[in-house]
Write a structure and sequence with these properties.
The strands form twelve sheets. This protein has a six-stranded mixed beta sheet with strand order 2-3-1-40-37-36, with no helix packed on it. Strands 4-5-8-9 form a four-stranded antiparallel beta sheet, with no helix packed on it. It has a domain of about 230 residues. The protein has about 525 residues and is mainly β. It is built from one helix and 40 strands. The two termini are about 15 Å apart.
Length: about 525
Amino acid sequence: MRSERLTWLVAVLGTVGAASTVACRKRPAVANGVVTASAESLSSAGDNATNAKMWMPVLTGMGVNASGIPWATGRMHKPFDFGSGTVAPSQKGDIYLAKIDPMTCLASATFLLGGSGGRDLASNGVAVASRGNVGIIGTFTGEIEFTPHHADRSGPSGKTGVPGLDFLQTGSFVPFYAVLDGTSNGAHVTPVKAHMVEVGQGALMSIASNPGQNAFAICGRTDKAVPAWSDTGANRGVITGGHAVAGGDWDIVVAKIDAATGAVIWGKQFGGVGDQVCDSVAIDNDGDVIVAGGYSGALSLGGIALPPAANTPELALLYAAKLNGATGEVMAARTWGGEGRSSAYGLAVDANGNIVVAGALGGSVDFGGGISIAGQGLTDAFVVKLTPELVPVWAKSFGDAQDQGVKSVGVSSKGTVFVGGSFQGSLGMLGLTSAGRTATNAFTAELAGADGAVLAAHAYGDATGAQTVGVVTVARAATGRLADSTFIGGSFWGTLTFGSTSLTTDGPRSLTGYIARMFP
């Protein structure tokens, strides 16, 4: 790796200008709820500055719209000002949804999803469709309100709300998806559609969009046959065209959602003997849906059967599949692996339809065509690029005898690949080593789209804490100053340093979130 590229990345993470970062840390607000901001001059010329904002709520998802404006989501328990005014969650905590000004890292709008009737609220991801509507997935118990208090007639209108629009009500730990108006202003978001998804003990794991498509894709795992979707909200499902048949233990569930109406375009369930899960989902420029994850046993994807390897341990086989955007029928599928548990946490599609899958590998993998990865230890971070037909182009892994993994991946308009994750020990060809024997540090890397060559890499963290990059999203459709801006986010405790900006939690094991903006 060329040292000048590493220096360049550090500069990107420490200056504002043609190459810059704004890093946002979350910690308790002062008594009046006002965000505390500090500024320091970080460029060599001293003519630019970066702000470190202190926030408390942990970030669990982030997406970016076609103009390069990010949306962030997470859960909060105390009143806080994200930059657009103090918002106060219910006593049991709410999900927050914040539209972020990329130049200041402060929210231009903040909305709460929850209410006094709900608990066990969690958001698992957020995405923004081509025309600006926002999709979110999560879990709740009891009730979740999108327009506060409509369910009990005490809201601003004084009228009973509409189930599936203003609120959802259910039992315990039920996943949901919601589509929200991206132009919402004021105290409350304008809902488009919300729906529960009955997956038993399963979960929705990923939501995605594409800057050229007005749709969302969601995926996850289920341990039961998912019922048919109902427009009334009474039937908690996503599968259209009749009831699905469960194939075994965990099965894959995936659906495509109309971003204008929130209606299900199609839904599918795939399974077989053993466990099959979807870790991540993406939509390409043609509107086709790509899913990736792990499985053990056998996997039947409609008319395509992926065979198991002999004596595979739990979720040891990786798979990727492309589904027709109009019908959900499987167009192509591939499988690799078989030595140890593997996960495909990151999935992205470039402007030419090439697919990048990233995550953690539990052993050596032969992708075919002379492209292979040799396992180094427990789990290794990996990235593999595939053609639109799922043929491997190149594959890279980074690791040693300890645990490493990529949590998210994004691709620029030029095809450059950006990954982020967490690691212990050393990341091999990235040239990174964790700060301590027990510390889990965060890392980012920039890889050339053509061959996966390492262009830059950096580690963040200290010797005693825990840090991770959980989200990477790239504004590849944006123009001007925000073109190809790369946003990263995650959680940490201890100290997290971007260039000359250090973020430190209030105490040991005080889990905190952050957002950073990078310009290539």
